Amino acid sequence: MNAEIVGVGTELLLGQIANTNAQHISDALAGVGVDVYFHVVVGDNQRRIVETLRVALERSDVVVVTGGLGPTPDDITREAVAEVTGKPLVRDPDLVGAIESIFSKLGRGMPAENLKQADLPDGATPIPPEGTAPGFRIEHEGALLFAVPGVPWEMKAMLAKVVLPELRERAGGGTIATREVIVIGLGESRTHELIADLVDSQTNPTIAYRAGSGAVRVRLTAKAQDESTALGLIRPLEDEIRDRVGIHALPRDSVSVGEAVGKMLRERGATVAGAESLTGGWLGAELMAASGAGDYFLGSLVCYSSQSKRDVAGVPEAVLAGPGAVSEEAAAALAEGAARRFGADLGLGTTGVAGPSEQEGKPVGTVFVAATLGGRTQVRHVQAYGDRDHIRALAVTSALDLGRRLLQEQ
Amino acid sequence: MNAEIVGVGTELLLGQIANTNAQHISDALAGVGVDVYFHVVVGDNQRRIVETLRVALERSDVVVVTGGLGPTPDDITREAVAEVTGKPLVRDPDLVGAIESIFSKLGRGMPAENLKQADLPDGATPIPPEGTAPGFRIEHEGALLFAVPGVPWEMKAMLAKVVLPELRERAGGGTIATREVIVIGLGESRTHELIADLVDSQTNPTIAYRAGSGAVRVRLTAKAQDESTALGLIRPLEDEIRDRVGIHALPRDSVSVGEAVGKMLRERGATVAGAESLTGGWLGAELMAASGAGDYFLGSLVCYSSQSKRDVAGVPEAVLAGPGAVSEEAAAALAEGAARRFGADLGLGTTGVAGPSEQEGKPVGTVFVAATLGGRTQVRHVQAYGDRDHIRALAVTSALDLGRRLLQEQ
Predict the structure, then answer these.
(1) Distance (Å, rounded) from C-alpha B342 to C-alpha B339?
(2) Is B277:B352 a contact under the CB 8 Å cutoff?
(3) Which among A40, A281, A297 is the nearest to B285, CB-wise?
(4) Are the Cβ atoms of A281 and B288 closer than 8 angstroms?
(5) How many beta-carbon pairs below 8 A join chains A and B?
(6) CATH of the domain at A231
(7) What is the distance in angstroms between the Cα of B374 and the nearest Cα belonging to chain A?
(8) Of A111, A154, A352, B407, which has the maximum CB count within 10 A?
(9) Which of A359, A20, A44, A213 is closest to B292 using CA atoms?
């Protein structure tokens, strides 16, 4: 069974909001074993909505439409579905009552415009409103269409209560399970070289890559009747990939290197602190991201000026005057300064040149990160590329990964 | 001229990421007068990519394709464009050289797979790689197709350097100009009350709101033959709105409160430092965001643990034991500690409860921010709502805005 998600709304085409509804629905449909083949976004234009829905109903088993169910004149999803299915709009008396009672509960008079929300294509089944907009489901020439509001919480509630239960039953219990092996310190090409034969020979699970911010995510996706069978298909292949990639892979079930470091610190009852130059607070933000981070994250010294590297983080004047603020020595001193100032077990340091221009004769993209744990300090030199934000993201990932390796090797 | 944005990548259809690329491109195309009529997302499947591109090239003047340009076997955008345009793939020797030189600069050998990134449909013009993936442009039966990588920073760079300049010229004279009045400290409803009559009576410029992270952006959009005429339409209306909103509006041409604070500091030759608890580095990251931030941003003390608030930022024990770490007094002491430790003119402090649970008996969403300048310290209490990230974003915006007001009033 395959599905298509159609977002209706000019605000999406103007770039005012991202189509996070499609992301949420895709994730939910994968969980009940439905493959999503297309997302389409179309504006509040009846001809183009009709054209889009016609194609969607022809090529997809299930179409989920979000948006265009409000009371204003630019809300025309109902009209478009009526046109494409050839069913006239009919006012549903139960929905009229439901909408009236919502307004009376809010203590407000119902504007006449809202009555059009009770109009459904003939033969459609209403989905009760969560806010003030009802949704509906309708079958057309073997395809099944659900129309739900674009307001995210209303959409999510209808999805959970109506759409997913029906699709789970129709999909007949099938499930898609996904696991990722997150690789740091090897590029996408080098990772592929190590596992190319596995990628070429697999069909279930499938293997795909996603690269970004210094990590390569190797994603294994398996289909099976139930989740444990799907995971059983994934497990041996995941083990083989982990064997080949070795220390470059984050621990199993990690979602990011920051989360992996946090989990390892929590298991060990250990703490972490940072001292950052070019990352300017991003390292701290990443360490704090997980709920409950206060158990292990003590803080971070953001030392953007050279003087503050000396006065706040305790980088020796001899380092600043000699190898310089962008150097292996400075990175190590930052990591050690962080551990000392906060009394942390693990100290992480970042320094480098985010650009736009070189610094101390070091080119843009020069990054040094350091980690110190139990008296042992390691430094890594990374030659990063891309814009300022990308260089910073690589620096954060590299510093966290160095800390992860020290923890793992301890 | 109308455009369609095609995102290629199974990770989008699985809901692993949102299609923020389409949002960015849509916003950018609106700025050069190009109407976007459709977004489509399709997976790493050649038949479906080809089907999608065929429809797009038939109905749209411009097609921007993102993703599928990497070196691995699931990157098949090149092959799909070759099929739909009927042009065979040809290896571009200049691109081979460019890709080789990228790897040699990185000090890494080039894996053989990467060579396929130098293959372009015959007749296509290469777009030089920003990371390691080249893009390309090709014309087909009156339509113009740009293929750019899915990695956001690479996509954004190619869009700015190649796609937008060509489309701006092709769009021929018509321009959409946009200016924003950014309002902080009033809600969307209160802002609307102040300017409702202006909103109701305007057609060109149009006025729209976008609210988020503690700011309301009042966006004025005018269409005219050239930019100066469009700006001439915007200016008197913008002035009227600024008069009504008063001190709550950021200075003209600001893009964010962080950027506004940076500009004011630079004009005054002044410096800033932070001390942050619940924002964990986000305040520093925001202060460092502008290019050249090193001229005024000295650093930030991220003090997540209570002990570090005392030991690192110098919050008095009496404050921690009395009013507590989440209090007006703690926020003031953090701001003053930041200014003192870094020797900064402006000191900013944040403390609060991001959740998931209450702290010191203060409910989730309690935020105190402080700013100190020239011996004068101000504190603001914000009752924030939403999830952890939203509460943090509100705290950063509020702290920066308090600093902005002190600078403006000085």
Answers:
(1) 6
(2) yes
(3) A281
(4) yes
(5) 268
(6) 3.30.70.2860
(7) 20
(8) A352
(9) A359
Q: How far apart are CA B226 and CA B208, in angstroms?
A: 22
Cα(A24)–Cα(A89) distance, integer angstroms: 29
Q: Are A239 and A283 in the same domain? A: no
CB contact under 8 A, B22 and A22: no
Instruction: Give the pLDDT of residue B244.
Output: 97
Same domain, B264 and B382: yes
Look-up: residue for tokens 């001190």? Answer: B247
Mean pLDDT over the full length of chain A: 93
B346 with B219, same domain: the answer is no
State the pLDDT at residue B173. Answer: 58
Contact A390 B153 (CB under 8 A): yes
Choose one of A248, A282, A303: the last residue of a domain: A248
Cα–Cα distance measured from residue B194 to residue B197, given in angstroms and rounded to the nearest whole number: 8
A280-to-A45, A265, A352, B284 alpha-carbon distances in Å: 45, 23, 11, 6
**Measured between CB atoms, which of B14, B17, B300 is closest to A281?**
B300
CA A299 to chain B, closest CA, distance in angstroms equals: 5
Taking the CA of residue A158 and the nearest CA in chain B, the distance in Å comes to: 18
Per-residue pLDDT tens digits for B362-377: 999 999 999 999 999 9
Q: Is A85 buried (19+), middle (13-18) or exposed (0-12) by CB count in 10 A?
A: buried
Tell me what pLDDT residue A260 has. Answer: 97
**A13 and A157 part of one domain:** yes
Count of domains forming chain B = 3
User: Given an 8 Å threshold on Cβ–Cβ distance, is A41 in contact with B30?
Assistant: no
CB contact under 8 A, B312 and A304: no
Q: Report pLDDT digits (tens) over A168-208.
A: 888 776 777 889 999 999 888 899 999 999 988 888 998 98
Q: Which domain holds residue B26?
A: 2-171
Q: Same domain, yes or no, for A24 and A85?
A: yes
